[in-house]
Write a structure and sequence with these properties.
Length: about 150
């Protein structure tokens, strides 16, 4: 862990210097309960190595992270019987790769937030421009041609 990482709460948890309710762990990833849950069972799957953005993980770390997310999501489904377990990647507020796993049901806070976001996605004129077929084709080409 580098000097800048010592202020990272997730690095502190991985190092055993900060408390956490650990749900699962392997060599490269760790799953813990979120201390500010959106729903009961809300978990975070984090990389053990300090990597701000999930797309900068190694292939092995990515496999570990998403394998653990799948395993814990199945456990959440069996434990809470939600409509589904929402998964999304975070890292903006705490710049250390983490996936949210949130059991969700119709009408809960997360469902309402995503419904509002989807309605917003359909309305602004600025977004209408990027939905045009010619623009979508250009966007797909640009992404395909970018270096990996």
């Amino acid at each position: 862990m580098s000097g800048e990482d010592t202020a990272c709460v997730f690095c502190e948890i991985v190092a055993g210097r900060a408390p956490a309710h650990i749900v699962d762990e392997d060599e490269l990833s760790l799953c813990l309960l979120d201390i500010n849950p959106l729903a009961e069972g809300h978990c975070l799957v984090i990389s053990k190595r300090h990597v701000p953005w999930w797309h900068d993980l190694t292939k092995e770390e990515t496999v570990s992270l998403f394998t653990m997310a799948r395993r814990v999501a199945r456990r959440l489904h069996r434990s809470y019987s939600p409509d589904f377990v929402c998964l999304y990647a975070r890292g903006r507020r705490i710049p250390h790769t983490h996936l949210f796993l949130v059991p969700t049901v119709k009408g809960d806070v997360l469902d309402a937030s995503f419904n509002a976001l989807e309605k917003f996605q359909e309305s602004p004129p600025g977004l209408a421009v990027i939905r045009q077929q010619s623009r979508l084709g250009e966007t797909a080409r640009k992404i395909r041609e970018a270096d990996d």
